[in-house]
Design a protein that fits this description.
- This protein has a single domain (about 5-110), classed as Immunoglobulin-like, CATH 2.60.40.3350.
- The chain is built from one helix and nine strands, in the order βββββββαββ.
- It has one helix spanning about 70-75, and strands spanning about 5, 5-10, 15-20, 35-40, 50, 55-60, 65-70, 80-90, 95-110.
- The radius of gyration is 15 Å and the shape is elongated.
């Protein structure tokens, strides 16, 4: 079962957070040959999705960086969304696809208008 964590994202701002993943025995999640994908949607049925940018920070510690550029957060309306993140390994003999993280995203509306 995936870990549940709520995220707060400021509309119109760059967003990033480092997440430490653990396996069921509380050891760092093995990140060799693993790729990640994750999306945010208004509801799980929504057609429109916003893709996370996910990279590995420290494979030995099971740390990933989850981010969104301001060009993406500017397109999101304020309010609640749902998200999940999957890990996938396609190495022969060690294939898996699991949900590692899920939760609610709260997009906090931007008040200040900045001319760029």
């Amino acid at each position: 079962m995936a870990t549940y964590a709520n995220l707060f994202i400021d509309q119109g701002s760059d967003f990033s957070t480092v997440i430490s993943l653990e396996d069921p025995s509380s050891d760092p999640f093995e990140l060799d040959n693993v790729v990640f994908s994750g999306q945010i949607r208004r509801t799980f049925q929504s057609e429109t999705a916003f893709d996370f940018v996910i990279s590995i920070v420290d494979a030995n510690l099971g740390e990933i960086l989850v981010s969104l550029p301001k060009s993406t957060t500017s397109q999101m309306k304020g309010g609640r969304y749902v998200y999940d993140i999957f890990a996938q390994n396609t190495e022969p003999g060690n294939e898996f696809k699991i949900k590692v993280l899920e939760g609610i995203v709260e997009v906090v509306p931007q008040v200040t208008r900045i001319n760029e």
